[in-house]
Amino acid sequence: MIKIKALNSQTGEFQEKVLATDDLTTGEWLIGRHPSCDLILNCPYVSRIHGRIILKQRQFYFTDLGSADGSQINDQVVEINQGYILKPCDMIRIGACIVTITPASCNMDETKLQPLDKQVAWVVSNQPKQWIKGKITLRCLRVIAETNDVKTFVFGAEPAVLFNYKPGQFVTLELPINGQTIKRPYSISSTPSRPHTLEITVKRVPTPAEFPDALPGVVSNWLHDNITVGCEIKLSGPMGKFTCMANPSQKLLLISAGVGITPMISMSRWIYDKGADTDVVFFHSARTPGDIIFRCELELMAARKPNFKLAVTTTGAAQASAWLGYRGRFNRSMLQGIAPDFQERTVYVCGPDKFMQEVKSMLEELQFPMENYHQESFGTSKKVKKMPTTAAESVSNGNKLAPTEIFLPRIESNIPRQIAFVGSSVVSHQLGNYTSTLLKEVEQDSTPSSLATSRRQLHSTISAHREITSPAQATSKTIIKDNLTPSVDVVSPPATTSTVISSPPVVVFAKSGKEVAFNDEDSILEVAQQEGIELPCACQMGACGTCKQPLLEGKVTYDGQDPECEPGYVLTCIAKPEGRVVIDA
């Protein structure tokens, strides 16, 4: 048996009740306003079936059964549907009522002499497991339309887990799109202080106006078009160092643009939920007032948290609706207006590459201590390739056109290699005793007439080549596809002069036995994928280390980034070769 005492602090009503059980080791009693409850609490803040007390293996537990106003044990808020161990004289606060329990057979005088431990313990057997890292399959619970082109996808696990991550981190989704598994990183927009669900916020990517035939964002748009409540996805993580937990500071300046707001809202929610005494200035740039993601929530935070300051600027054309915030691109005047003490703050920036570069340059010019500057970016921006507009260019769309084949004579190893100048680059490599000249970096505005001219020039070069080399059988060949530019000046060196050209960037995949000429747009990982070589990858921004491969020969560059990678290895997702590079893959 247990003795329950309940005091209504509003009415002063006091009741004491002994709850009996036939078994000294098990029992269950309901608490609420409903007449069927074992302990009836007449208070408007108490739900009809508010909670329960259970006896299990001689230990008492309290569980909140999803009440409207919640419960507290020793002034600590309890999670719903979670069991909490109860000790003698623990106080359960339910609405305006304070409930205590005491085993009916216990000696109260002895209990009073014992020190009171007000800490709440979780019941391990009832607590969901924590997800800390690794792959997991989740089910979509809700889809929230934040704006016209932005959706938040809310995921949960079955059975339930508690998601444990740092605010601002990201996960990598693995999605089955067009028969392939495509991986893409997305920042987590939810907060670990609400651990039962995990959320990502995704913007639909339109086709660029300057490239109407270009493919839009494949993964983001696929999520918008295909993920509904009940769908399952696979993801891995969490990853990333873009988090306020890694750089504790009493003053923060969060600067975002567009969907770059996602890691910022995660950090803001975490600071708000924890009640941390952190001074936050949140600045966001959106195209129009209707494009401000999480607008209502941010305004609510600013209204309820005195040291949370919100400022927004719109960069689009003036709208019909009134807008009293900033207008135009982020500038020094705005910075001084919203955070005159910005030199004392830790700054986090996330948004399009151009936006982040402008903010970074501005802060550098203002002598900001850049050791307190942090930015998030999913890799460097790349040039958008012009889509084919003619039949000659349609090869890039997968159309099988018959290539023009030109046979070059066999070249002995002691004879200098020939040179083909294409635009501003020279691409030439020798495979054994053969030389294959590849034409690259082509222009896209070729015409059939210029294509014929180019072919005549190339044939002239071959004739000149035959005059300066040994008369051998033509066995090596170069295939010039119809989608390559015809406006190419092909130059053969004089027969009396040996010309030496430095080798262009080449990636050799040792295990796969492939050697691939490299261009300056793709990473080593992307080159491998284009050649059908499977390499492990996840974040594709040099943060997680999944893509790390042994570097057997050569040197790589990371385009100004400074990733953490041990000597002798290379992060293939962001690395580019300098000259000839051999990867153990």
Automatic annotation (TrEMBL):
Matching Gene3D superfamilies: 2.60.200.20, 3.10.20.30, Nucleotide-binding domain of ferredoxin-NADP reductase (FNR) module, Translation factors
Cofactor requirements of the protein: FAD
SMART domains: FHA (SM00240)
GO molecular function: 2 iron, 2 sulfur cluster binding; metal ion binding; oxidoreductase activity
FAD-binding FR-type domain span: 133-245
Residue span, FHA domain: 29-78
Location of the 2Fe-2S ferredoxin-type domain: 504-585
The keyword Iron-sulfur is annotated on this UniProt entry: yes
Highest rank taxon of the organism: Bacteria
Keyword set, alphabetical order: 2Fe-2S, FAD, Flavoprotein, Iron, Iron-sulfur, Metal-binding, Oxidoreductase
PROSITE patterns to which the protein is assigned, alphabetical: 2FE2S_FER_1 (PS00197), 2FE2S_FER_2 (PS51085), FAD_FR (PS51384), FHA_DOMAIN (PS50006)
Protein name as annotated: Ferredoxin--NADP reductase
Organism annotation: Symploca sp. SIO1C4
